[in-house]
Amino acid sequence: MATLKDVAEKAGVTVTTVSRVINNRGYIGEQTRQKVQEAMKELHYQPNELARSLSMKRTNTIGIIVPHIVHPYFAKLISELESEAAAHKYKILLCNTKAETKKELEYIDMCKSNRVSGIVLCSRNVDIKKMKNLDIPVITIERYLDAGTVGIECDNYQGGRMATEHLIEAGCRNLIHLSGIKNENMPADARAEGFRDVCKEHGIQHREMLSNNKIYSTMDYHEYIRQAIREVPDVDGIFASSDLIAAQTIQVCNELNLKIPDQIKIVGFDDVDIAKYTTPMITTIHQPVHEMASWAIEFIEKSLRKEVIPEQLKLPVSLVKRQTT
Amino acid sequence: MATLKDVAEKAGVTVTTVSRVINNRGYIGEQTRQKVQEAMKELHYQPNELARSLSMKRTNTIGIIVPHIVHPYFAKLISELESEAAAHKYKILLCNTKAETKKELEYIDMCKSNRVSGIVLCSRNVDIKKMKNLDIPVITIERYLDAGTVGIECDNYQGGRMATEHLIEAGCRNLIHLSGIKNENMPADARAEGFRDVCKEHGIQHREMLSNNKIYSTMDYHEYIRQAIREVPDVDGIFASSDLIAAQTIQVCNELNLKIPDQIKIVGFDDVDIAKYTTPMITTIHQPVHEMASWAIEFIEKSLRKEVIPEQLKLPVSLVKRQTT
DNA sequence: TATTATGTGTCAATCGTTTGACATATAATT
DNA sequence: AATTATATGTCAAACGATTGACACATAATA
Fold first, then answer.
1. Secondary structure of residue B133 in the 3-state scheme
2. CB–CB contact B93 A92 (8 Å)
């Protein structure tokens, strides 16, 4: 593959000159510029980013670490992060931990080795930065933050409240909350708190369920949902902590011949595409994923410029009424 | 950040020695090795992959270029590719073209600049390799192949046949095929051929529909589906060319009060997760995405080793019976 | 004893860029 | 005429690894 040197020779100048026209810095004569550009065209020259990054001591790469790619929430998050990153001339190094701590630590090292400009961590919340002696900005999304990382999350508590209030207003008097993950201590836990508080305020009968699922190891919640409904047979409203669970709740209700929304109402969380493709479509709490991604990239850039950035950012959620309520 | 040199100084040896223990090549005394390893620990040394790649003239990066990340088929493909790549010590550079030719070409350049080991292209089929003077192995998935690239696809024609035969065996006599993309000339077009041939062989009344959707610009097919059913009101079987379309077909049938599978049966294509989360669950044609991803990575490796690889690989599909038939 | 194989380690060039420090030439300003 | 900007280029040292070519012991073999 052609190098700067080849181009320089072909154009009859030195590498510095070529580098100058590429990065257009310093003074360059119009004629010289022409010659150089022609040479580049002819040789199909493509600058070597590795050499460039090495020399400049910075890459334009952002590492994204997620526990799961197929999960619609993460797929959406990745998609939004990619768009935003591309708009800022960053490229994406994609890491999938499958929720294994070992892989996560390996990926952190990998990002470090590749000198990424920043890391967006949506995986877990070990005290990464301290542990790994990282001097790379780390943004977490919907995870508890460590010392020195900035955490972005949506207002899970309000989301829980809104979902629950909506169910109660719609006439539900016996509620279940289906949470996704047990024992993981995540911001999403606040959804349950919101649920609990609203139920208590209204004196509504309620029950919270915890899935046995290891974090995202499987996305099959059917048995968990069946069990929940079996335990509370006269339930008339379910607040699921993700649209994925909500979708499966629809299926289980269908098995049990519970009519949605007449006999039972369902509210999901996330507002990912799947909520629009089920029958009926899912009423859900919208997470501002686009904004979350956008802030994440912005914070990485600010952090690189040594600007002060907040430790935590909590974004508002909203209710999207569809057909399950 | 600590460099080889720092480690060498701390351990009282030269950089060559340190490099030797890292890559363990040549002879190294046990004591020396110890000392070096301690020094690395203490300094939290993490080799600079950029320098390493530059020096070795190879990266361990694979570029994945897709038109859409949120689309469940691509999400799954990306996920499988990532797993397989990780297992082979490759990292992933993720590129989302949103089906824009301009972005696609930019991303090809980006991959080239970053000296990726290979490119998995699932986006379109311009004559990339020739156009861009690429000397990087390119594997396409479910796209027509260019000169010099290897194409991996599933047996779309057989898939079309199987879906259609299944509908006919289940008693359908008036079929529609809903294809996803118009005028794109993709391997997936063969699904329609399979459909057509089987219908003709059985003398079954049939109709093929083409979506007006620009390729993946939106994933909303509702109006298209409504229109199709309006044109063939007595349809009793639909073969949708993706599970995403099938899911939306379920929704439309529900609007129109057509009972599935009693009055109308539906078969999808892809067998992505969404097929399991709709109500009813979608009977579909399974694409062996895992195997496709696995072959893609293998071919890239073979290609780097200068081994001969096939020009085309067609993998078998299978029918997964669920609840829409 | 001379020769060869086996360990252990050092030197310095190389990968493809960027960039500060210098030249040199021309034009404009005192 | 001397001084100072303004253009236009060149040189060579980084950046942080890898690696072939050597050097020098020590042990084994002829």
1. coil
2. yes
pLDDT in tens, B227-263: 999 999 999 999 999 999 999 999 999 999 999 999 9
The pLDDT value given to residue B184: 72
- The helix/strand/coil state of A195 is helix
Structure confidence by residue, pLDDT tens digits, A302-325: 999 999 999 999 999 999 999 999
Do residues A178 and A265 both lie within one domain?
Answer: yes
| Token reading at B317 | 């599909």
Let me know whether A140 and A169 are in one domain. Answer: no
Nearest CA among B294, B293, B299, B297 for reference residue B312:
B299
Please, what is the average pLDDT of chain B? 92
Q: What crossing angle do the helices spanning A189-202 and A156-169 adopt, rounded to 10°?
A: 40
The answer to whether the C-beta of A48 is closer than 7 A to strand C is: yes
Q: CB under 8 Å to A238, separation ≥6 — which residues?
A: A175, A176, A177, A178, A246, A249, A264, A265, A266, A267
Same domain, B110 and B171: no
The amino acid occupying position A325 is: T
Is strand C in 7 Å reach of the CB of A251? Answer: no
CA–CA dist B224, B248 (Å, integer): 10
Handedness of CA B184, B190, B194, B200 (dihedral sign): positive
**Cβ–Cβ gap A82/B72 under 8 Å:** no
Q: For B275-313, how does the pLDDT look when each residue is reduced to its tens digit (9 = 90+)?
A: 999 999 999 999 999 999 999 999 999 999 999 999 999
Q: Does residue A322 sit within a domain?
A: no
Looking up tokens 């550079």, which residue turns up?
Answer: B93
Q: Which residue has the tokens 């620009």?
A: B214
Distance CA B138, CA A130 (A): 40
Position B132 in a domain = yes
Q: A198-207, pLDDT tens digit by residue?
A: 999 999 999 9
In the chain, the amino acid numbered A80 is E
Confirm whether A238 is domain-assigned: yes
Residues A65 and A145 in one domain: yes
**Do A66 and A127 lie in a common domain?**
yes
> How many of the other CB atoms lie within 10 Å of CB of B159?
28
* Same-domain pairing of A255 and A162: yes
For residue A215, what pLDDT band results from cuts at 50, 70 and 90?
Answer: low
Closest alpha carbon within chain B to A94: B92
Find the nucleotide nearest B6 (Cα to C1′).
Answer: D16
* Pair (B150, B160) in one structural domain: no
Total domains, chain A = 3
Which amino acid residue lies closest to nucleotide D20, measuring CA to C1'?
B16
**Which nucleotide is closest to A14, CA to C1'?**
D10
pLDDT band per the 50, 70, 90 thresholds, residue B163 = very high
- Identify any residues that bridge with A118 across adjacent strands, giving them in sequence order: A62
**What's the length of chain B?**
325
Q: Which of A76, A135, A279 sits opposite B279 (nearest CB)?
A: A279
Distance between B203 CA and the closest CA of chain A, angstroms: 33
With 90 as the cut, is the pLDDT of residue A182 above it? no
Name A201's bridge partners: none
State CA B219 to chain mean position distance. 17
**Domain of B24?**
4-47
Per-residue pLDDT at B285:
98
Which residue from A minimizes the CA distance to B103? A86
> Phi/psi class of residue B309: alpha, beta or left (left: φ > 0; alpha: ψ in -120 to 50)?
beta
